[in-house]
Amino acid sequence: GEQVEQLPSILRVQEGSSASINCTYENSASNYFPWYKQEPGENPKLIIDIRSNMERKQTQGLIVLLDKKAKRFSLHITDTQPGDSAMYFCAARTSSGQKLVFGQGTILKVYL
Amino acid sequence: GALVYQYPRRTICKSGTSMRMECQAVGFQATSVAWYRQSPQKTFELIALSTVNSAIKYEQNFTQEKFPISHPNLSFSSMTVLNAYLEDRGLYLCGARRDWGASETLYFGSGTRLTVL
Predict the structure, then answer these.
(1) With bands split at pLDDT 50, 70 and 90, how would you rate the model's confidence at B15?
(2) What would the 3-class secondary structure string for chain B be?
C-alpha cells in the first residue's frame, strides 16, 4: 500500500510548549519524507524534510525523526509561537516512483 | 530559491463549463510536474504526474478526458478541468520537481481555488 496516516488531526498547545505530529507509512521503499505547512488560503510550503539515510534532522526549532523499522516519522516543533498555527502535512515518496503521498493533515493551534 | 507561479489564484465557473490553470517554473527546469487537488476537508490527492520524456500518468479516479494536461517544455504546464461540477471544487496545486544534484523537493505553486456554481 501507499497510504500515509497522520495524527492527530487537531492539536492545541500553549505558547512556548512543544507540539508533535506523527505519521506512519506503508511502503517500505519510501525514502524521502517532507513536511509542509499550509496557512489559510495559501499553498503548502516545505518546512523541513528528511531522507531515509538519516534518523534525525533539526532546523530552526523544528525536529524530524525517522524510524524506518517502524515506518514512522514525526515532526516536533519546540517553543511554539502563535505564528506556528497552521495546517501541517507529512508526505512520503518512494525511490522508484515520483509520487508524493500526503497524510491527512494536522491543524495546529497555538494559544496564549 | 525555486519559484513556481500558478494562475489564476481563484476562479469561479458555472457547472458544466471548463477552466484552465497554468503553472510556470521560474529559475529552474521542472523535470516533472505533479497536479494535486485538495478538496474541502481533505488532504492532497494526486491527479497526474507529468515527467519529461514520459507519458503523463493519471491516478485512479482521474482521467485525461476530464483533466487534460499539457507539459510542452521544462518550465510550463497547464491543466484544464473539463465540465466542472460541484465535486470538482477545491484547491488545485501544481508541484514542480527539479533534478539538481539529489534534490527531490517538490515546490508548490500558489494554487488555483476553483469554485463551481
Answers:
(1) very high
(2) CCEEEEECCEEEECCCCCEEEEEEEECCCEEEEEEEEECCCCCEEEEEEEECCCCCEECCCCCCCCCCEEEEECCEEEEEECCCCHHHCEEEEEEEEECCCCCCCEEECCCEEEEEC
